[in-house]
Amino acid sequence: TDAEVSTRKKTFAEIQTERLDQAERTVLIKCPSKLNEKKLLQYLSSHGNVKSHFFFENRGINALIEFSEKSSIASLQDAVGIPGASEHHVVPFKSRLFTFTLKNPVSQRVEEAPLHLSPQCHIPVKDLIEKLCLADSISSQMYILLNEYQLTEENIKLRFLACSLVRDFACAYFPDSTVKPFGSSVNTFGKLGSDVDMFLDFGDTGKHATKMKKGPFEMEYQMKRLPSGRLATQRILSVIGDCLDNFGPGCVNVQKILHARCPLVKFSHQPTGFQCDLSVSNSIAIRSSELLYIYGCLDSRVRALVFTIRCWARVHGLTNSAPGTWITNFSLTMMVMFFLQRRSPPIIPTLDQLKELADEKDKHIIGGYDCSFVSDLRKIKPTKNTETVDVLLGEFFEYFGNFDFRRNSINLRKGKEVNKPESSPLYIWNPFEQDLNISKNVNQPQLEKFIALARESAWILQKEDKTQQMINKEPWGLAALLIPFGKSNSSKMKNRMKGIGSETIRSLLDSLKLNNENSQQKAVGK
């Protein structure tokens, strides 16, 4: 649609700014169960124009209300009372989270039109498989999966609201600070139900440089000095974490993880239903989010392929929400990007090509690393590649099923297979911090499991007889790939694994059997 094209062409920064502004004008209301939508909106309109709203289920009915003007919130807050302290005593922090109950519920029991509720999580894998079997081609199956799993407009608004509510606390200490989402919430590859990664940003230090030139004095704030930036980060997060824990309505299970490589505070935000990770501004992580945003916007096949591969990996236990020796979603996404750079002609440009298109305002040097690339999508030439997304899926499995992981590494800057700088089983160059391997955690058995599953999947797609399978009511196409390849296939697997180190085959097949039992559970639970 035209509307979508116009939103698609905005830069990452423009969208972030727009969404953060929208979130500032938004409140969240816990509604009574017998709710007349018209009455609610009528009442809220007395405080100002309601620009948009939606309802969702989370321990009852909730409404997200976006006003046109920020001042409407102050007007509404003036009318809202503090809970009576009969059995509970309250922390009198006034937020933008309200509970509405009906004053005289009996008189209003007219037949209500049922509310439309926006789903905030995706359907279970078994339901997805049923839907996929009704499609008419593998390509449409992939786009169905994308539509079921991707973040909705409503869910994105809720994510930015969660950040905005945390910002209200940070601003008590640092009035200029903002809290912004990064990673999957904003890079176009987020899945419904995923965590919200957010970071605390203290504004650009460069902003005031021009003002400082005027006048006869060098002027600066007196600030507390600490021996390291890390210590400052730990102290700030520690205090904000305590604040959320002690005063934050609906913030539960607050954990401060201050000694991690990247210090963070984890918490559950009950009003929005999100699990949140709060850290302090990490410019390189933002650049990665924007890079993926650009790739995701360039061609619709990019997201369809990434969502499909990630769902496939999760079903087969290749990825896992717990940290460990598994391949991460980020690594998998980078592997898909690399594969798309390697097509002929390429479907997406290399990072070096994006860097060549960068102008002055796109220049970013962070901690000595050059993180520059073009931000204006219109400057990037569309690809001439016309391969369909189902062909790409088969080719992806083929490509990595036969990739020389022993010798080669994956480099998105160059879009080339380059010799491995060190002996990690899987080496994917960090696109910005060029001396880091983003898949350093992956061990040999996990990599070999990936290779075996990729070969098996390529084989299933090739030998497929769709008509026969549809007659037999068997899952076909993508649906067949999302069913764990368990005991029935293990003998076939052995044949196709010739040439893979035999010492890991036994553990591999065992883990496949194990996964067969629990991965469908896990996939449904995720």
From TrEMBL:
A Pfam family assignment: PAP_assoc
Ranges of residues in domain PAP-associated: 391-426
GO CC annotations, alphabetized: mitochondrion
CDD domains in the record: NT_PAP_TUTase (cd05402)
InterPro entries: MTPAP-like_central, NT_sf, PAP_assoc, RL
Superkingdom in the source lineage: Eukaryota
Cofactor(s) demanded: Mg(2+); Mn(2+)
Keywords: Magnesium, Metal-binding, Transferase
SUPFAM superfamilies: Nucleotidyltransferase (SSF81301), PAP/OAS1 substrate-binding domain (SSF81631)
UniProt entry tagged with the keyword Aminoacyl-tRNA synthetase: no
Domain spans labelled Poly(A) RNA polymerase mitochondrial-like central palm: 138-296
Gene Ontology process terms (BP): RNA 3'-end processing
Domain RL, chain residue ranges per copy: 11-79
UniProt xrefs under PANTHER family: POLY A POLYMERASE CID PAP -RELATED (PTHR12271), POLY(A) RNA POLYMERASE, MITOCHONDRIAL (PTHR12271:SF133)
The protein, known as: PAPD1 protein
Highest classification ranks of the organism: Eukaryota, Metazoa, Chordata, Craniata, Vertebrata
Gene designation: Mtpap
